[in-house]
Structures are given as structure tokens and as C-alpha cells.
């Protein structure tokens, strides 16, 4: 992610509408990243402050929106369950993050102009 995002400065948040009921935005991308980090849909949801049910629903939406599932999960039990990004999931996440970066770079001058016109931090009061 860009320095502006990590420093709390202005940022571009992109939602890509792939179809009537299919979209990918910052929340779903963050969920994919957390699933990769934690190996668990439930833990990823908790880390984002969302319910287990909501996290599972979003994973289901993403898996249904693409030709191949983005997340592969195994049920819990004596050996425990888990989740991981599939190759398609890794590719979708990387592509989404690349689009974010390209957009932020291309719009940097415009974003700076908007920030200068805004009230509060970084803008005029």
C-alpha cells in the first residue's frame, strides 16, 4: 500500500463492479489478505471486527463471482479446519492491489489538489 494510506493521508478506495451482484472492494481485499495471514476465515473476520457469518458470506460471494474459487476451506474437527487462498485468490488479490497502486499514482496530483481544498488535516481551515 502507498505511504499516504499507511500515514493516514488521503487515499483512493476502489470498488470494482464485475456484475450485478459481483464486486470487489477494499473490504473483501482486506479479508483475503487476512485469510492468507491467519489461515482461518473466522480469525480473519475477527481481526476485521466482523462476525463469522459475515466473513463466510463474503467469501461465498467472492467464490461465486469468479470462475475459480478464491478461498479453499476445510471443515473443523479433531484435526482442525482452515482456509487458504487459492492460486486464483492470490492472483485476484495481487491484481486488485496493483490497480489500487496505479490509480493512486495516476491520481496523486488531483488527490493533493483535493486535500489542499479540504477542511481539517492537510487542508485549509
UniProtKB/TrEMBL annotation:
User: One MF term in GO for this entry?
Assistant: DNA-binding transcription factor activity
- Residue stretches making up the HTH lysR-type domain: 31-90
Q: What InterPro entries does the record tag this protein with?
A: LysR_HTH_N (IPR000847), Molybdate_resp_trans_reg (IPR051815), WH-like_DNA-bd_sf (IPR036388), WH_DNA-bd_sf (IPR036390)
Q: Give coiled-coil spans as residue ranges.
A: none
Q: Which Gene3D superfamilies match?
A: Winged helix-like DNA-binding domain superfamily/Winged helix DNA-binding domain
Q: What is this protein called?
A: Domain of molybdenum-binding protein
Amino acid at each position: 500500500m502507498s505511504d499516504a494510506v499507511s500515514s493516514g493521508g488521503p487515499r483512493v478506495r476502489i470498488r470494482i463492479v464485475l456484475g450485478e451482484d459481483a464486486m470487489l472492494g477494499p473490504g473483501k481485499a482486506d479479508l483475503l489478505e487476512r485469510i492468507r495471514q491467519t489461515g482461518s476465515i473466522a480469525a480473519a473476520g475477527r481481526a476485521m471486527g466482523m462476525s463469522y457469518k459475515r466473513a463466510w458470506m463474503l467469501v461465498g460471494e467472492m467464490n461465486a463471482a469468479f470462475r475459480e474459487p478464491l478461498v479453499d476451506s476445510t471443515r473443523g474437527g479433531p484435526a482442525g479446519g482452515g482456509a487458504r487462498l487459492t492460486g486464483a485468490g492470490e492472483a485476484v488479490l495481487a491484481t486488485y492491489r496493483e490497480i489500487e497502486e496505479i490509480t493512486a499514482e495516476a491520481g496523486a496530483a488531483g488527490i493533493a489538489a483535493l486535500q489542499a481544498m479540504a477542511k481539517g488535516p492537510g487542508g485549509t481551515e
